[in-house]
Amino acid sequence: MTYGIVWFKRDLRLHDHLALYTAVSRGPVLCLYVVEPSLWTQADAANQHYQFLLESLRELYTALRKNGGQLHILTGEVTEVFAHIFAHQPFSAIYSHEETGNDATYQRDKALGRWCRTQQIEWHEFAQFGVVRRLQNRDDWQARWNAHNDLPCLPLPKSSAEKFIQLTTALTLPRLPPSLQELHLDPYDPPERQHGGRQNGLILLDSFLRERSYQYRGGISSPLSAPTACSRLSPYLAFGCLSLREVVHATRQKLAELPATADRQKKGLDAFISRLYWHCHFIQKLESEPEIEYRNMHRGYDGLREQEWNQAHFDALVSARTGWPLVDACVTMLRQTGWLNFRMRAMLVSVAAYPLWLDWRRVGHWLARQFLDYEPGIHWSQMQMQSGTTGTNVPRIYNPIKQAGDHDPHGHFVRRWLPVMRRVPDTWLFEPWRMPPEVQAACSVKVGVDITEPVVDLELATRVAKTRLFDLRKQAHMQPENLIILEKHGSRRKSSSTSRQPSVPEKPVSTQLELDW
Ligand SMILES: Cc1cc2nc3c(=O)[nH]c(=O)nc-3n(C[C@H](O)[C@H](O)[C@H](O)COP(=O)(O)OP(=O)(O)OC[C@H]3O[C@@H](n4cnc5c(N)ncnc54)[C@H](O)[C@@H]3O)c2cc1C
């Protein structure tokens, strides 16, 4: 008997799963997830990702059981696992979703492709986002994004139960997920992180569409309101517990149901759909140019920061001891929850890249481990954009003292995450290191002991960084590559986020994308 293997990757659901749907409609199917030890030793991997994965796999396992199937979880390097199965229980095809992952998954996919060709096994890959493989140019990209998301969501075919088959018992590979120790993972797991599984994702989607989207417009920039105003769907999209398309559909349906008077919520949902569009827009950059994970998008910036790594600055940042309360509070919250809103992420990277003058690669690996929703395509594109190495976007430099005044004027956020700040009087909230000795004595907070002094002089260090970046930026030899990058990666977005009309190709957009208010 010949059969196909559905290889689950970052698509941990049964609903709207084109690979599963196609495989089941063609014949017998074996469902497989492979825990790949080499991926868990990468610099971007963290235990919180592994725990979220296991939680999602458990739910997927149960869901498949209810539908008459079984999820087989094996451990090993993918090509070896497939070869091992093939030797004991030959199959004719693999079905999976396309993955725009890190370099390790890219190389692994290439190796598997070679193996499939030598064994004459067909490997069918399907798009799960509005990301286009082998994209020739960006001009009709928006129309393709719309086309992907306009398709109906696919249920599991009715006759699936008879199609699922089991793995032969002759196979000797371990069938339980490995322990943290076996994967050599640091055991730290943020105590307040979100938990995996489709049900948790659906609950969040429902509460967002029903109530929380009302706060989306105006609520997503402040770290105080953002945890409830934002959808919080990012890890469920990153691990594929929800399909992007089902989120787009549910949002469009909600928009259609809302009365004209619900203007604020409608605007919020429109803005939310824009973010779902940006989700794929950013992933497309890594899909089209995988090297941006490890080298500057604009090669003219090579050598700008690489040779000047300052370990003391990096240590201050990761240990929440930069001295700027909003920065340290964000790092503390991130460590506790695995999540931060867009503006605070952008601010952290900006502080790292400008006043602390740190190269984006090591900062990016650290943040990839901190973000539960780590999605390589969004992450590395954003890391480069916020560090000023794309060449095309006008660099945006966030001042953490101004950001604190704008988004946490009463200090509720910094006092929540930095308990020592509860004793600091309001007057000194933004620059506590300037407290005169008598104020320090009165509130029992000693600068240099209880509160760190800023790791650098913010104004001076930012000015120096700006000069270095802009001096390079304006040099004539930098311009030709800017145009090439713009042509390759620039958005041609024109119409409203909810429009289903194919877009008219436009000139690429060169300014920093406004993703926040
Ligand atoms: C340096 C940096 C690194 C980032 N790394 C990641 C990452 O690894 N994974 C990730 O999902 N997002 C990343 N983002 C984008 C953004 O911060 C998060 O998507 C967002 O905070 C997730 O919360 P949410 O789901 O509640 O967002 P919502 O505001 O509810 O947005 C809904 C969805 O839209 C997408 N989205 C939102 N904002 C953006 C954006 N600016 N660019 C692209 N897609 C977006 C996400 O899939 C998100 O889940 C990064 C941003 C920066 C500045």
Architecture overview:
The C terminus is likely disordered. The relative contact order is 0.12. The N and C termini lie far apart (58 Å). The protein has 3 domains: 125 residues, HUPs (Rossmann fold), CATH 3.40.50.620; 94 residues, Serine Threonine Protein Phosphatase 5, Tetratricopeptide repeat (Alpha Horseshoe); 188 residues, DNA Cyclobutane Dipyrimidine Photolyase, subunit A, domain 3, CATH 1.10.579. The longest helix is centred in the middle third of the chain and has 26 residues. The protein is built from 23 helices and 5 strands. It has 517 residues and is mainly alpha-helical. The chain is globular, with a radius of gyration of 24 Å. Flavin-adenine dinucleotide binds next to helix 11, helix 13, helix 16 and helix 18.
